[in-house]
């Protein structure tokens, strides 16, 4: 039994700038002409082009998604996110009391942060489920709402810890410049 030599390059992309330029110009022109409705078909064509020129261990990736699936996702996100956002940011400030509009905006942010995180998870899961390599369909396990909860839980505490650490280090550096200890207030030698 002989051991085969490992491939020297396990990941490669054979695309060139001018291979994509023609497709990008065509997609841009059709997107402008159709008032951005062609963007779903443009994105699908670009993904197919890029995936087919990406090689993992010598075999190319294959994108099997369709533009109609992307368009359907857009139609779902329109009433779930964009229409409420238009109301909260553009109509409510003029239609209701400013205090209530402020609370409405705050509530929208509280709800939209996990919703956007879940949507990003669904987007990545869609891309992976429409990608094949050597006939193997890729995927993403787990829960979108678990991902959203984790992202919501990390944003608040991480920002708070970062602010506290920055405030403490700034106070200590100012106190060290003055020659006082930040906790006791007594003079200590400053080492530089």
Distance between the termini: 64 Å
Tell me roughly what share of residues is in helical segments: 55-70%
> What is the rounded Rg?
26 Å
The backbone outline, from C-alpha atoms, is extended
Q: From N to C, what is the helix and strand string?
A: EHHEEHHEEH
Structural class: alpha+beta
- Number of beta strands: 5
pLDDT averaged over residues: 82
Helix count equals 5
Give the strand order of the largest sheet, numbering strands 1, 2, ... along the chain: 1-2-3-4-5
Low-confidence stretches: 180-190
Question: Percent of residues in beta strands?
Answer: 5-15%
How would a textbook summarize the main sheet?
A: 5 strands, antiparallel
Question: What do these coordinates show?
Answer:
A 5-stranded antiparallel beta sheet has the order 1-2-3-4-5. It contains 5 helices and 5 strands. Mean pLDDT is 82; it is low at 180-190. A hairpin with a 2-residue loop joins strand 2 and strand 3 (59-63). It has helices at residues 17-33, 39-52, 67-95, 98-129, 144-178; strands at residues 11-13, 54-56, 59-63, 131-133, 136-137. With 192 residues, it is of the alpha+beta class. Helix 4 crosses helix 5. Helices cover 66% and strands 8% of the residues.
Topology:
Layout: E1 11-13, H1 17-33, H2 39-52, E2 54-56, E3 59-63, H3 67-95, H4 98-129, E4 131-133, E5 136-137, H5 144-178
Antiparallel strand pairs: 1-2, 2-3, 3-4, 4-5
């Amino acid at each position: 039994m002989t051991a085969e030599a490992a491939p020297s390059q396990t990941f490669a992309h054979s695309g060139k700038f001018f291979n994509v330029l023609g497709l990008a110009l065509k997609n841009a022109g059709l997107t402008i002409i159709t008032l951005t409705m062609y963007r779903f078909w443009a994105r699908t064509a670009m993904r197919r082009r890029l995936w087919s020129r990406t090689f993992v261990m010598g075999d190319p990736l294959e994108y099997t998604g369709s533009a109609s699936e992307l368009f359907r996702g857009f139609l779902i996100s329109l009433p779930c996110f964009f229409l409420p956002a238009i109301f909260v940011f553009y109509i409510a400030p003029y239609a209701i009391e400013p205090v209530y509009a402020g609370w409405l905006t705050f509530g929208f942010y509280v709800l939209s942060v996990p919703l956007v995180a879940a949507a990003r998870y669904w987007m990545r899961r869609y891309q992976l489920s429409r990608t094949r390599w050597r006939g193997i369909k890729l995927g993403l396990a787990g829960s979108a709402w678990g991902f959203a909860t984790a992202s919501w839980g990390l944003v608040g505490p991480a920002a708070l810890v970062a602010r506290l650490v920055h405030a403490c280090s700034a106070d200590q550096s100012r106190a060290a410049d003055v020659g006082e200890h930040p906790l006791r207030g007594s003079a200590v030698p400053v080492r530089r």
